[in-house]
Fold:
Amino acid sequence: MSSNTALSAIRDRIKDPRARIGFILGSGLGHLADVVEGTAIDYADIPGFPHAGVSGHSPKLVIGTLEGVEVAILGGREHYYENGRADAMRIPLEVLSALGVDTLFATNACGSFLPEIPPGNLMLIRDHLNYSGLSPLIGEPTDRRFVNLTDAYDPDLRAALKDHAKTADIPLIEGVYAWYSGPNFETPAEIKALKILGADAVGMSTVPEIILGRFLGMRCCAVSVVTNMAAGLGNEVISHEHTKASAPVGAAKLEVIVRAFLKSVS
Ligand code: HPA
Structure:
């Protein structure tokens, strides 16, 4: 399946679909898709898009404007743990690229290792640790697969996001995000090991999408919403229900930063 089939299904619904900035929304962070003025298309109606089956995700593509900027929002993602495919978001991201998206903004829910970033707060991803050892580019036959991931999380975008957060008085500390395959949560021993390896937070997504984003030549950035302290570091009982219930506090802060960022590039 190529992204052209997906693109023609989208063009059947939207006359001249275009976007500059693409978003991927994490668990419990779907509100952004609802505030865009534009057209929503269910993933089920776009060939090659995932049948995102995780509760807390809205499996729809929204193309429209937010704060005067043309955006494309992937309201849900397929995770590696759903079907064992690290490249599940390749066609959606190729579609975004074909629509003109040159900047990718990924969001996710995560477990924090840092007492200074407790639940309800945000972490700006500075770099990642691919603890899964997987890549969405396994099987890609061209030399383009040798993607350079130095500064994968664009320094200029990070600086801009930190400025917007500061202006809005929202703490936005940078950290390293570790990708754990899921779907089970980690053990306390694994969290201890990841901490020693240099991670500041853990989650089950985003890394393959950033690799694909860089593969497609996009400038990338990502913000994690902390929904819990990682296993062994807090008192709350970690669960998907808890993730979904905790996400809105951080999501509201994230929306303030996203809107300020979009205003600044409009
Ligand atoms: N681990 C992995 N993924 C997560 C977590 C976590 O603690 N919280 C939210 N997503």
